[in-house]
Amino acid sequence: MRILVVGAAGTIGSEICKALEHHDLIRAGRNGLDVSVDNTSEQSIKEMYEKIGKVDAVINAAGGANFASITELTPSLNERGILSKLKGQINLVLLGHNYVNDGGSFTLTTGVMMDDPIRKGASAAMANGGVKAFVKAAAIEMPRGIRINSVSPNIVQESWDRLGSYFVGFTPVPASRVALAYKKSVEGAQTGQNYEVY
Fold first, then answer.
1. 19: Cα separation from own chain's centroid
2. Average pLDDT of the residues of the chain
3. % pLDDT > 70, the chain
4. What's the N-to-C CA distance of the chain in angstroms?
5. Mean pLDDT of 159-173
6. Are the C-beta atoms of 31 and 51 separated by less than 8 Å?
7. CA–CA separation, 110 vs 154, rounded Å?
8. Which residue has the higher pLDDT, 23 or 33?
9. DSSP H or E run through 59
10. Using CA atoms, how far apart are residues 110 and 125, in angstroms rounded to an integer?
11. Is 81 helix (H, G, I), strand (E, B) or coil?
């Protein structure tokens, strides 16, 4: 399969590439290894798809949100999660479904915070929940047999030193195990799912 991986250079993205290395991978990101894309820009997404052409699967492992308590979370701080984690991922689908071959797939990324809240995680949880709802609803009307799923990772071991203080009492998982959920989404048969990796 010809697979576009957005966020391929990230902690989880690099493990996804390892898990799917037997396929023809196109690695994208802000400093893309094969193609550059800014997922907060519709024009950048359009240009990426025009450049790479048809693919069998699109995986997104990119997108961020600001960590802030509700009393510190301003509309402008919240906007990062909306533009990147929420709209950025959804726009990959809205602008990309014509570039995905019949029977292909999209796999987006949510996260544990939407179901198991942490302090300062409301903005990320909001974006994750929106993506999960979009995937579930979009699955019933995707064209040409295209499937769509999302993966909800726990905090990964590789990020524990940097982010572990936010995730009190959580058990981190290796990014390589998270990557298997993306492999399941791409190579499997299900649609409308949110694969939780805890």
1. 16
2. 98
3. 100
4. 28
5. 96
6. no
7. 10
8. 23
9. strand 55-60
10. 8
11. helix
